[in-house]
Design a protein that fits this description.
This protein has a domain at 176-335: Regulator of K+ conductance, C-terminal domain (Alpha-Beta Plaits). With 514 residues, it is α+β, with helices and mostly antiparallel strands. The longest helix has 31 residues, at 395-425. Helix content is 56%, strand content 13%. The radius of gyration is 25 Å and the shape is elongated. It has helices spanning 2-15, 26-38, 48-73, 78-101, 106-116, 120-130, 134-163, 191-194, 234-244, 321-328, 340-354, 368-383, 395-425, 428-454, 459-470, 473-482, 487-513; strands at 17-18, 21-22, 176-183, 203-209, 212-214, 227-233, 245-247, 259-265, 287-293, 296-299, 311-317, 357-360, 363-366, 385-386, 389-390. A hairpin with a 2-residue loop joins strand 12 and strand 13 (363-366). The strands form five sheets. A five-stranded antiparallel beta sheet has the order 5-4-6-3-7, with helices on one face. A four-stranded antiparallel beta sheet has the order 8-11-9-10, covered by helices on one side.
Amino acid sequence: MALFLVLTLGTLLGAIRIAGVSLGPAGALFAGLALSALLPDIAGTVPDLLGTLGLTLFAYTIGLAGGPSFFSGLRRNARAILAAVLVLVAVAVLAGALGRAMGLEPADIAGVYAGAMTNTPGVAAAVEAAGSNDPVVGFSISYPFGVVGVLLAIVAGQAWSRRRPTEEDREPPQTAGYRTLEITVADLPSLGQLRSFEGADLVFTRLRRDGDEWTPDGDDIPRPGDLLTVVGPAPVLEAFTDHVGHVAHDDLPLDRHQVDFQRVVLSNARYAGVRVADLDLDRFDAVAGFVRRGDVDLVARPDLIVELGDRIRVVAPRDRLHEVVTELGDSERAVVVADPIGFSLGLLLGLALGLVPIPLPGTTLTLGTAAAPLLVGLVLGRVGRLGRITWQLPYATNQALRQLGVLLFLATVGLSAGPDLAAALGSPRGLQLFGLGAVLTTTMALAVLLTARRLEFGGPRTAGTLAGVQNQPAILAFAIDRTDGDDRVNLAYALLFPPTFVVKILAAQVLATW
């Protein structure tokens, strides 16, 4: 009853929006802290194992979802990832030095670091390493400014970009769209060569010539008078239109007599984690235009990794569309049912890795129940499937398990630490913890802003970088709102979330034991 009372109150608290920002799942933490501070007898009634289970679910599902995008962007974004990791390591060193100078205990320093970086698995790792709930106090005191400080940094970064815009700031938002064009330019190369126009990955879904219409392949060469439907980023579509002709009066997707289209739910587990090119839609004379994941439409580039539950907009001859639907599955029921063997075995591998000792100078660490499942999830999410075992989770199932996991963890630690937090708030120790947390958050935010400018990031990408380094969904939502939904925010966040997530967990463990 105590647990579900906290989950109810925490969800209500987390839904309150102030200036477009809400606590989200963190509301469960503060609801648990408040309830256990008012009713000390409740503290500790919920088993810690339940919180550990929630943390493991949260970390593993994040890894599964982030694996494909993380590994695909690793090579071309190595500088940004390395810079973010170095910033977090430097802030951890600063936390240890200042905390010791202030006379704080290692558990307090680790908790403040996790709170200032708003990393909930970090405080769990610190609790595990310290053998007590002491880190939760520092975490709870420093967490609010960890959110507010980075929100202010995003506002400052946008103001900086307006005064001194980079080349990236001058580019329009990268939103996906389509156009039907009339070709007027002669002697164009094949569509296979035009596909990488201006470095983008364009997708050609329909070609009409002399009354005949079909889904083109890379060998087709457009001729004057052809009508061609193109899918790609909006700014590139504008330039491509000028390059090959003009916008046609007829919109081919509206004519479904010869070629039709349908959004097909990817539920065939055989295609979990493969590229769009590996769907081999050519055998049905079909092509994928968009992939809708959650609430976002993505251009179906050949190298885009598809996930179970994606809704793929398929264009194909009318008499062959049913073959594509049958092959991809199109089952709403199947995409909410996880493979129990793959899910259980993946978690088992993650927990086993978390027990492996890692010797360091003066101490021995383990990855624990957060970092290890995250790492295993990243790898398995990229692999997708192995034989008949499907590692990937359907999108909706992943989101549900992730939300449940983080709520269970935060509610459990909140219910155990309320009395200690109440005592700290009324003492000089509370001011010390808050001050240290504010210094760490401010230092991290300034370092990220300066690094982003050094790498010539624009305003949207800088906002996404701040949200990704801070691992905070509320900050991501704020950044998306401030940039009118620019997709570069999501891309930067998805790239940096996994590596910074792991670094914070390990740093919190080290701080708690040194």
